[in-house]
Amino acid sequence: MALNGDDKDFFDWEPPTEAEMKVIQARKERQDKISKLMGGYLLKGYRMLGDCCDVCGTILLQDKQQKLYCVSCQELDSDVDKDNPVLNAQAALSQVRERQLAAQAAAPPAPPPAPELNEGPSSSQASVLVPQPRPEHCEGAAAGGRALLPLPAVPSPTTPAPAPALVPPRAPVSPQSPVIPPLLQEAEEAVLIKLRWATSQLQSSASLETSIQLCSLIASCANSLRSLKELSQ
Amino acid sequence: MPPVERLHLDHVVQTVSVLESVVLRSFGPEGGQVLFTRDTGQAMLSRSGARILTALRLEHPLARMVVECVLKHSTVTGDGSKTFILLLASLLRMIHKMACKEPNVSHTYTSRQTAEASTARHLADNILAFALEELDDLIAMGVIPYGCCLSWEDFTAKKHLPGPSNNDCVQKLLTSFFHSRLGRSHCDFISKLTCELLTHWKFKRDQPSLSLEFVNDNLDALHTPVSGFPISCSRLIEGQVIHRDFATPCPQTEQKTVKAAVFSGYLQPKLLNAGQVLQLGCGEQWMEENSKNNRSIVQFSAWTERSLECVFANLQSLGVSVILSAVKQSAAVLSLAAQAEMCVVECVSENELSLFAQLSGATPVSDCWMVEPEHVATLTFCRPILLGAHRYVHVAFNDSEERVTVKPCSLVICGLGEGQTDQYTCAFRDAIRMLLSTWEPMGMTATTASKRTLQSTKSTYSHVDQIPNVPPFQQCRLQPGYVIPAGGTFEFLLHHALLQNGTSCSASDDTVTSGLAVSQLLANALLIVPRQIYSHSPRHFLQAQARFQTIIQNHSHPFSLVYKQEHRSIFGESAFPLEEDKLTKQADVSAKLFMSDSGLESVSCKYQLLLAVLQCLSSILHVDTVLHTHTALHTQSRRLANTSWEDTDDETED
């Protein structure tokens, strides 16, 4: 629609990429779904208000009991929440993978100040993590409501099988690999040792009570590891 | 809630999409019905778009604006509310897509959204300008050749072209209309009844639009809704039904004719109204004779009642036995009328009185002291009639010379419940409006009229260039009464014509990139209608599209036939041996299109619908800001207080 064609050179506009097209398509489908739902509610006797929802910008409906109702917030899965790793396990997992890919790209040119174990464990962990996407582990982190970073550490404590192999190199694994002060490192090692012991005990325990207690010990070890990681940030 | 709210293009698209999803399920011949329920327990089924949209509870100002546009359009053409919303939504989506892809980058805008809004506005204005100028030409070229002109002479005429189809008549048009509105079961019956009514009311010497206008204007007086009976009890009644009962007992007379007088005012003047002061005075002679009597209102009233007797004596001398009054007469008048053996009908509505006056030729009496013979109407009979639960007055007129062309009759519409009767009545009214807009000459604005005079110099259609004179072309465009088969035919044909127009003018002048884009946008947006009609099976849509493509390709342009005919006369018969084949092929094509039993629809209505949609689109996209105001009574209600039609200070405009 070249109304004034010669001024186009001033504006740096490129056609949307494939990914952006997918996003646009997804958004369009979501809008269609919203329209259909709203039409159904209008036919049921809801009132279409002149206001928009503060959160998502959709037009608000009001039912016969004068309650406000936003179709997209309360009925459809939120568009934005999908990408929030705190609330969504898949988002958390995808963020982990992205960080690891970025680290792998950055690691060879810049040797990290942290011990050389980083490269090894990060690649091994990446190779371990990728074939086993297990969102329920991440949900443990999400339910805890904690921040994003200790996720690389989380999958391991709840799986006894790969844990022992990964326990020692896991500590300094965070791909950004900042310099961890020695006190924190010691604390981490202590916790990890206890964790290792707990998992080995868990494997061999036969009583229900001890298993439950060992599991709670492992969980608290994981929590303390997480806080240690946060401290080191 | 901020008092000032910017309207973004997304909002507009979403609002109209919501309305579209509401009407979508009832759209088309396969569409469903909406069940309306009230808190009182009344329930009604309806498929009428106008009814559905008015029943929605909308406080959003843009949605209300759109619904108002739809209703205004529906009062003119009687049909097409759902198609209106569908086309509007489709055009908005296409404009949105185009605006997002290529915003108008020639001006500096503070945000991408304002750039998009500006592009959308420009696009809508361009499309509207294009439609106002070129659309009727395109329709005349691309759609009308495939249609046929309905004859007004005989409503059930057989088609005169060779072929098995005999379906083109007003009745078929009405049947397809009633089918879409009321369902399959009663559409034939009602359409036949309507045709009968129109036959009776045909002004033989005049154009069809005049008699249709007459029926349309007097529709309230020409029909009587009766609830409690099945629809098949509907019938035509000779004469006029006045929807009031007799106020005095109607004497049984054996007379052949009945004389009636129409009074528009009070026979006995009302002396005292609220808030008035009446000062009584009387002549000195009276004072002397009756000085004992006080001047009182009672005496005065008695005097007025005595003077009434003179009025009635006058009426009796003229032979009047029926009095039709527009207002409620006093008790004295009624008792005097009963004494004089005259029947009185009170509170007759203005419409009915004017119709009565027109049909009988008698003028209403304004001054009751001056009743002349020209105020007296002659009727064949005037008797009560029982319709449903009500008793009405039934009058029949003497055939006089000027009225011999018209046989007045009135329609009784029956329905099982009040809601249903109301539905049938509305459908009937909309059918008359639809016929009226079919036969009205296609609207010519000043620009198009002037353009036609410059026909030979400016033309957008390449074929026309080759033809020196185009009398059949003009004839084709201006003649009303064209119909084409329903089911998306109009949209397919116009789509094809628009695409051809776009490609043909792509090499002529430099404003064409916009012309091409506009044609394409409109062409693609039009296809939503047949897509939705065939939405239950997309395969049928593709089949229909393919069928239309072949028909259009096989059908050579009718004016190339004219061209060839002229050349044939110049060059002799051998030049065009395929001439006759092409003519029969054209007849075959039209016959093929009409043979499918999908019903008929009016070209003029569709054209008006398209123009109305484009105007509504342009208005919507010009709305920049919504100002919310609180009225004094309802703190929660909000009104659209101001729409800014100019751009805001964010944008620089040329």
What does this structure look like?
The complex is a heterodimer of chains A (233) and B (654). With 233 residues, chain A is mostly helical. Chain A is 56% helix and 5% strand. Chain A has a 3-stranded antiparallel beta sheet with strand order 1-2-3, with helices on one face. In chain A, a hairpin with a 6-residue loop joins strand 1 (47-52) and strand 2. The N and C termini of chain A lie far apart (52 Å). Chain B is elongated and about 95 Å long. The relative contact order of chain B is 0.16. Chains A and B meet through helix 1 and strand 1 of A and helix 1, strand 4, helix 5 and helix 19 of B. Strand 1 (47-52) of chain A pairs parallel with strand 4 (57-58) of chain B, so a sheet runs across the interface. Chain B: InterPro entries: BBS10, Cpn60/GroEL/TCP-1, GroEL-like_apical_dom_sf, GROEL-like_equatorial_sf.
Low-pLDDT parts of chain A are 1-10, 110-177
Query: Share of helix among residues of chain B?
Result: 40-55%
Structural class of chain B: alpha+beta
Rg of chain A, Cα atoms, Å = 25 Å
Proportion in β-strands of chain B: 5-15%
Low-confidence stretches of chain B: 157-167, 444-476, 507-512, 557-580, 635-654
Q: Main sheet of chain B, how many strands, which sense, barrel?
A: 6 strands, mixed
The tally of helices of chain A reads 9
The strand count of chain B comes to 18
By DSSP, the count of extended strands of chain A is 3
The DSSP helix count of chain B reads 24
Please summarize the sheet with the most strands of chain A.
3 strands, antiparallel
Shape of chain B: elongated
How much of the sequence lies in strands of chain A comes to 5-15%
Summarize the structure.
The complex is a heterodimer of chains A (233) and B (654). By secondary structure, chain A is mainly α.
